[in-house]
Every structure is written in C-alpha cells, then in structure tokens.
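for the recovery benchmark. tokens below, seq after
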C-alpha cells in the first residue's frame, strides 16, 4: 500500500514555498556594453519579494455551516409543529382562494404528520448540531496551525 502524499488532519503541514517570479529578458546585452540606466529616469529596482499568497476560503466549510444551521432550524421547527398539532388538533387550516377555511382533522392530521415530525425532528436537530461542531473543529484546527 502506498503512503499518502497529503498530510492528515493531525500531521503538521509544511509551509508552502512560493517561487520567485522569473525576470523577463527583453534584450540581449553584449559583453562589451556596460549596464545602462532606464531611459525614463527611474532608478533600477531591486528584486521585490513575491506578494504573500492569499488563502482561499474552503467552499465545503461554508456548505457545512449553512447545512448545520438549516438542519438545526428545520429540526426545531418540526418539534414545535409536532407539539402544536398534538395539543390542538380541533381544526386544520386549508389553503383557500382568498379566504381562510377550516376543516375537521383527519387521521393524517391527528396521527401521521405529528408522529413523522416528532420522530424525524430530533435526528435533524442532532445532524445540524453535529455539522456545526464539525465546522467549528475544522476552524479550530486551522487556527492552531497558524500559531
């Protein structure tokens, strides 16, 4: 089995070395000529250090944060909806055209929907909180490597 080429989460990363940009050669200078000053009157510049490489934001980390927040909110909404439907199943609002209409609850309103919401909502909330914890852990590992 071959060794992995990239470091794992717990290994120290080697800092990236940025190679200096090549100096463009526009004219060939003969041996007999001396080095001349630029015609514009500027002094020749010393080689400037390369600008630091900006780190890109990890798009999967953004997805993890958004997914964590949405799953947590969906789980909490489902828990409150299940409790509300179980407490007051007397009338169900029907989407009417221009006016509110109510009807007596059926089997699905009284049993099925609250049970589905009550059984799935804790899992959604746990997944959301877990992904928020995972995103926070990735940020903590990245922060500890900087220092």
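predicted aa per position
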């Amino acid at each position: 089995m071959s060794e992995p080429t990239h470091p794992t989460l717990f290994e120290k990363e080697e800092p990236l070395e940025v190679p200096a940009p090549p100096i463009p050669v526009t004219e060939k200078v003969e041996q007999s000529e001396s080095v001349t000053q630029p015609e514009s009157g500027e002094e020749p510049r010393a080689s400037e250090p390369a600008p630091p490489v900006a780190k890109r934001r990890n798009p999967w980390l953004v997805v993890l944060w958004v997914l964590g927040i949405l799953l947590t909110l969906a789980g909490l909404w489902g828990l409150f909806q299940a409790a509300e439907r179980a407490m007051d199943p007397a009338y169900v609002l029907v989407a009417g055209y221009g006016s509110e209409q109510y009807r007596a609850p059926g089997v699905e309103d009284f049993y099925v929907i609250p049970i589905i919401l009550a059984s799935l909502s804790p899992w959604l909330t746990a997944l959301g909180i877990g992904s928020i914890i995972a995103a926070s852990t990735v940020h903590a590992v990245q922060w500890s490597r900087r220092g």
